[in-house]
Amino acid sequence: MSTLPEKESRAPTSCPGPASTHGLDSDRGDGPERGCSRKPDPKPRELYGVGDPTATFSSGSSLLSSRGRVVKWFWDSAEEGYRTYHMDEYDEDKNPDGVINLGTSENKLCFDLLSRRLCQSDMLQVEPSLLQYPDWRGHLFLREEVARFLSFYCKSPAPLKPESVVVLNGCAPLFSALAMVLCEAGEAFLIPAPYYGGITKHVCVYGNVRLVCVYLDSEVSGLDTRPFQLSVEKLEMALQGANSEGVQVKGLILINPQNPLGDIYSPEELREYLEFAKRHELHVVVDEVYMLSVFEESAGYHSVLSLERLPDPQRTHVMWAASKDFGMSGLRFGTLYTENQDVAIAVASLCPYHGLSGLVQHQMARLLQDHDWINQVYLPQNHAQLKAAHTYVAGELRALGIPFLNRGAGFFIWADFRKYLPEATFEEEMLLWHRFLDNKVLLSFGKAFECKEPGWFRLIFSDKAHRLRLGMQRVRQVLKGTSQVAEDPPSCQTQEPWGQHK
Q1: CB atoms within 10 A of CB 351
Q2: pLDDT of residue 238 exceeding 80
Q3: Structure pTM?
Q4: Rounded to whole angstroms, how far apart are CA atoms 305 and 365?
Q5: Distance (Å, rounded) from C-alpha 97 to C-alpha 115?
Q6: Strand ranges (DSSP E) for 72-114?
């Protein structure tokens, strides 16, 4: 959920059509998308927003500290759908009327492969050193394997170094640790929005660090642009705006592939963003947690570590985890790669709170070094299943006339339900979300990602076919009972989608 002070909502200036969402369902000649126009809103577009994590929470329990009340407010405001799901979780045999979860970004497609690999004998080793305190950066044998793994899969021009690796129990604590060691309390990171909303909690709760949203929107200005496109110009405007409000910005957060959009930054774009950060002496935190979940080869993914030369290597910090690419969100393994040894040591000093057990470190080292299994067994099957699941959900959305971004990466589709909102407000977005939840299907609403256009939702497709079918049936049932308030007017034109952005 949002942690930014509420401003007056800006109604979208248009719904999908030739002028505004050129590039939705953008890809391989799948067919035209229809659009419609709305009356332009005279209010100026919001270009940025400075977050204040304590601005909107209620006082709550007097038995908690002020920080404890903030933590509880985050939980209460952000976890409603997740709690509802866990209290009434769908089970084909035990609870067939339970909630289908199309809201949590987990890969549930390859458990059979993973369970077989993790149960092999080489994974079940117990040595005295694994039961004792490790180097807090992680056991050297694991950091060596992480460096080799990232060198190979990120296609780094030179071998990466084990001394630049720190391992923690996931990317969430990595965000918290980096916020703590890079920023003073009250300072801020820039972050393009919409973005994965959990980052707000990760950086605000522990380090009292703010986020300055760089707002992106669905409108495009020409054939060389795409919906929700980030530009250096938008970064510059957000930075200047934050400075004008007295907010000290210390860094930029990039997610590549991006969550929830699925966008992939080209090497040219990455370099532009890094050069911007260097000009302003900003740290850049690059989250590449979906780097092996690009299931369309034509998407052309490049890691920031593949660049021949980083503009400012001492301020560039890259994270990756096994939670998404290996479907192991419950194992809790994340890693940081940074050339800055002061940052590596500072983050490692927090690992007593965020470390991994020696047994998990051994398992991860064995998994990461098994390139034959990864390349010949796991990745081909995982990509094929992701592509098939994506194709099904995309087809269902097309049949419903729902425009969406189609990027070939990640587990999610960013879909435009604006025509089902009686008014372009976040209150109406929440009412639609509740109708989905009441009909036993959990989606993620756009406000949770700080999207400034009410009516966008994220749908997760990385699940088994029978659950996807039932989930999409329930989505269809809700929409059939919801009046479209933005029907295509006679003046609308049919627009052929243009080629997928590389």
Answers
A1: 20
A2: yes
A3: 0.88
A4: 21
A5: 28
A6: 100-101
